[in-house]
Write a structure and sequence with these properties.
The structure is a homodimer of 468-residue chains.
Chain A (H helix, E strand, L loop, with lengths): L27 H12 L3 H8 L4 H10 L2 H11 L7 H4 L2 H10 L2 H9 L3 H9 L3 H8 L4 H12 L5 H4 L6 E3 L4 H10 L9 E5 L5 E6 H6 L6 H4 L7 E2 L4 H11 L3 E5 L5 E6 H19 L11 H27 L2 H6 L2 H29 L8 H31 L2 H31 L4 H28 L2
Parallel strand pairs in A: 1-2, 4-5
Antiparallel strand pairs in A: 2-3, 5-6
Chain lengths: 468, 468
């Protein structure tokens, strides 16, 4: 973007320079400025910086600070910061902030949040801390939160907000508008009105835009959409995200076991879930539990080493396979030079297939209705790539070591391993999913173990059989 | 979920069994049923199955079909299918459907779509096909689409819809509601009203829920929120997604170079972008360009082989390094057995760090404000893990081959490679991002090349120096 276009872009009125970039990310200079101010203990200046910022940007700023800097800001300026900042913070940083706040301050902050946001903050606390905060809250709100916390983690019950607009089926557009003009305990933002029958079961919804377009005497039941996508309280949040995405929803009614309306889930919470789930899958495929960007050294090591231990195990397994052929390698040392190629190609081809499969399973694009077609395609791709790379690698090995039989052996091993990679890349994630194990978390380890073991075994085994 | 809870869940009224699962995914049995019907050429029965389905579920069903089955459905039943299905289809399947439709049918379908959806369909067509369709559209709509297509791909201009509700700054709540009740060219769904000044520049917005809560005589300018997050026409769609996510928006105004309101982006389009971007990053890290679940064999091979060729190149590079030490391996064959362990651990530890970095860069959580802190942490993690796994692996190698000096060599190589992994996992993606290359696409190849080459070189080099 050219410089001349900047003047029509939104600017925050912090008189000096822009603190929010053109793409709405936080200017690194702002973080530097705040850091300097904190070093010089000019806490009032920091307050002036924070004042015009959106709460989401304040959260970003806090995430950039070191523990000591964070402590200075929270201790000195918490009363000037919107409590909602807690919901915008990364979990690791939120925990730090919560530790810095006393129970009194935290209780007040929680009481200012919508119920769904409050539950999110509560989830991270241990039971004792939860209890300490709950005991300081007004009784009605306390009961509400306690109830929310009884729902399973990552369920619709935790995600929903209890504040909602419920319209009896007899009301007209006019009555509804009048009710809303007089009522003062409505949620901050809502996008649909849910119509319930006398048993409090949702029977339809009307988007607000339709309410505004309709004349006063018309009954809501006449303009409502009855194709409701009900969300059961116990539905998994990934399935909630799927439902919103599939049907383009902006809000959806949550119902209890007997079908009564108990809450509403809105798109903002769902976007958060979509982000979290995508991040989790990415991290699991990368061999981590979750992103640890904001975790300190110790937490990071503690979270990552178990995965490395598992990898060490599979690497040792591969070494054991190689160990079976020590005698062969001793005689034809070219085998040691070439053997990583077969294993590496298998691992990469398999990872390609695996990645497609894991994502498709997560997005419900891969099911028993098309699994065999997918497996079949990947098998054919494996055969084709196997032959293709067998020819290339075989020719290369022949040229390199001047022995055509080494080319033949590596070519044959390549075909075997790329077919195994195609099958492993499909069958492993589909199989794990079928038995209820998250395919993102365990597939990679299984797959690379298979392609390493088979890769080394096929190459060295064929060499032992035909070159000796 | 127990069986007894099913009766309060939504059911589609296709008299026999449920066709949509509890989690709103398509029942595999439904796909089977449709398949059988198609085989028996009972196209009317298929129509009855499609009839009650939401258009998103119809799209899923079409995605599950083979090319021949798809042809039967499109040729026979297109007139019964909502044109909007085009926007729900995966790009590969959409292309097939478009090929099956003639220009006349496609033109009619496009003319029924909102402008943003129409642009999405158009993007996939070649210029000649675009022209053929455009010439059949009404002039006004044609001009609108042609203009949208002049904006860069993946920009806000392509994402926005041109249909919107614009309110002059003088209007009251009552006037606004009256206007909407009489107007019949409003978009299907909208969530905010944008207030413009006489120059057509947005000066604020009012969420519909606030309009409904406010009494008729109140001016919109009195209740509007002036903290507008303006989206420039040329803003990248990833930045648009960031802006929505950051500020919890459900819709945002798009402005041209002089700041005039030209369109609106709504949350449903942003959710699609979030999904696409997350999927792309996942695929790139897995060594693919994009998901090819629905692509046929040839397309799949064509898209994946280049990545495998690159991988073959890096594998050969690693082999060349091993080749330097043929003499050493010939004398101590245990080295060939153990050498994959060092490379594999480096690759995995590096991938962990890399995954965190790539995701954090994509989410704008990693910037120059905290890059050094992150690099520093990963360096310390690398040193720690290096020492930890050096001890484990060293002891193991000693025990296995009965030679303590082999344990020392593998331990030292492990420390070196895990430090390199930590540095590579941070510096490579941050560096690529700094020079404007997508870190997701190229980081993995760079990193594994580095950890393989350094892994083999450190291990075999140290062995050559100290064991000979």
């Amino acid at each position: 973007m050219s410089d001349s276009s900047q003047d029509w872009l939104p600017k925050v009125d912090l008189d000096s320079e822009a603190v929010i970039e053109e793409d709405y990310s936080l200017a690194p200079e702002l973080v530097e400025t705040v850091r300097e101010m904190l070093e010089e203990e000019r806490i009032d200046s920091v307050q002036q910086v924070l004042e015009p910022l959106h709460v989401a940007d304040v959260a970003d700023l806090l995430e950039y600070l070191t523990k000591d800097e964070l402590q200075l800001v929270i201790k000195g300026l918490w009363s000037f910061i919107d409590s909602e900042v807690l919901t915008y913070l990364d979990a690791a940083v939120r925990e730090e902030v919560i530790d810095l706040l006393g129970p009194r301050q935290l209780a007040r902050a929680v009481s200012e949040l919508d119920s769904d946001d409050a539950v999110e903050v509560f989830e991270d606390l241990d039971e004792e801390a939860q209890h300490r905060i709950l005991s300081r809250l007004p009784q009605a709100y306390r009961t509400l939160l306690e109830e929310s916390l009884t729902y399973p983690e990552d369920s619709a019950g935790r995600l929903m907000q209890r504040e909602m607009v419920v319209i009896p089926s007899a009301w007209s557009v006019g009555e509804t508008i009048d009710h809303m003009r007089e009522s003062d305990d409505l949620p901050d933002d809502f996008y649909d009105l849910f119509i319930v029958n006398p048993k409090h079961k949702p029977i339809g919804f009307v988007p607000l835009s339709r309410v505004l377009r309709t004349k006063r005497p018309v009954r809501l039941t006449e303009i409502m959409d009855t194709e409701l996508k009900l969300i059961p309280l116990t539905m998994n949040e990934e399935d909630v995200a799927y439902t919103f995405r599939q049907y383009g929803l902006v809000s959806a009614p949550v119902v209890d076991e007997v079908g009564r309306l108990v809450g509403v889930i809105t798109i903002d919470d769902v976007v958060r879930v979509i982000d979290e789930v995508a991040e989790e899958d990415l991290m699991k495929l990368g061999g981590l539990g979750e992103s640890d960007l904001y975790n300190d050294f110790l937490e990071t090591v503690r979270a990552r080493s178990p995965w490395l231990v598992v990898n060490l195990g599979t690497a040792i397994l591969a070494s054991l396979v190689i160990g079976l052929f020590e005698g062969t390698i001793e005689k034809v040392v070219a085998l040691a030079v070439l053997m990583p190629i077969v294993a590496s190609m298998g691992g990469n081809a398999g990872t390609q297939t695996l990645t497609v499969a894991v994502r498709a399973l997560a997005m419900k694009d891969l099911s028993s209705a098309n699994a065999w077609r997918f497996i079949n395609k990947e098998l054919v791709v494996g055969v084709f790539n196997g032959v293709l790379f067998a020819v290339i690698t075989g020719a290369l090995a022949w040229y390199w070591f001047g022995r055509p039989e080494i080319g033949l052996v590596i070519g044959a091993a390549m075909v075997v391993n790329l077919i195994v990679a195609g099958l492993g890349g499909t069958l492993i994630p589909i199989g794990l999913d079928r038995v209820g194990v998250d395919p993102a978390i365990a597939s990679t380890v299984f797959l690379t173990t298979v392609t390493d073991v088979i890769g080394f075994f096929a190459f060295l085994g064929l060499a032992a059989a035909f070159l000796m």
